[in-house]
Design brief:
Keywords: Acyltransferase, Transferase. Pfam families: Acetyltransf_7. With 165 residues, the chain is an alpha+beta fold. The chain has one domain: Aminopeptidase. It is built from 4 helices and 7 strands; from the N terminus they run E-H-H-E-E-E-H-E-H-E-E. The protein has a 7-stranded mixed sheet, with helices on both faces. Strand 6 and strand 7 form a beta hairpin. The radius of gyration is 15 Å and the shape is globular.
Length: 165
């Protein structure tokens, strides 16, 4: 995937975010595992991001990382009518440093650069911390539904007509 350039000349690097490379696969796995491990006991299941094919996601250009060493990352997928934010993960020892917000702002700029006017994501209903975070960044609940054993809250953020940062 090419470097993302937003409306205001923002690049992935302008956010301190870069595309992950093949050498990043082990750290991508480590960050995701560390971020989601606390939820295993709470939800009684291994969260889906922990079982993702990280090498395939990196090879497809869907993973963007931040920090040196890597402190956080997003996995995104361009869809015809929206950008799907599949995974956002921040190392637990880096919480409270603004990394999640930086990644969410990057995702918005990335969606705009791709000409998409909406971002969608979901979170497990038992990950209640996320239910406080996403609305602060303009995400609204679209629906709640069970997908197999997972109780998920689906969010969306519409970008058309939003004030520019």
């Amino acid at each position: 995937m090419a470097e993302t350039s937003g409306e205001f000349g923002e690049t992935a690097e302008g956010f301190g975010v870069r595309p992950a490379g093949a050498g990043d696969v082990p750290v991508v796995k480590a960050v995701i595992d560390a971020a989601f491990q606390p939820y295993v006991e709470r939800i009684g299941l291994v969260p889906v991001p922990m079982e993702a094919d990280h090498a395939a996601n990196v090879a497809a250009g869907r993973v963007f990382v931040t920090g040196e060493p890597v402190l956080g990352l997003v996995v995104v997928e361009e869809r015809p009518d929206h950008l799907y934010l599949d995974i956002i993960a921040v190392r637990p020892d880096a919480h409270g440093q603004g990394i999640g917000g930086r990644l969410l702002r990057f995702v918005e700029a990335h969606a705009r650069a791709l000409g998409l006017d909406e971002i969608r994501l979901y979170t497990n209903a038992m990950m209640w911390e996320n239910q406080k975070i996403y609305p602060r960044y303009g995400y609204e609940v679209a629906e709640r539904r069970a997908d197999g054993p997972y109780d998920r809250i689906h969010y969306r953020k519409r970008l058309i007509g939003r004030d520019r940062p």
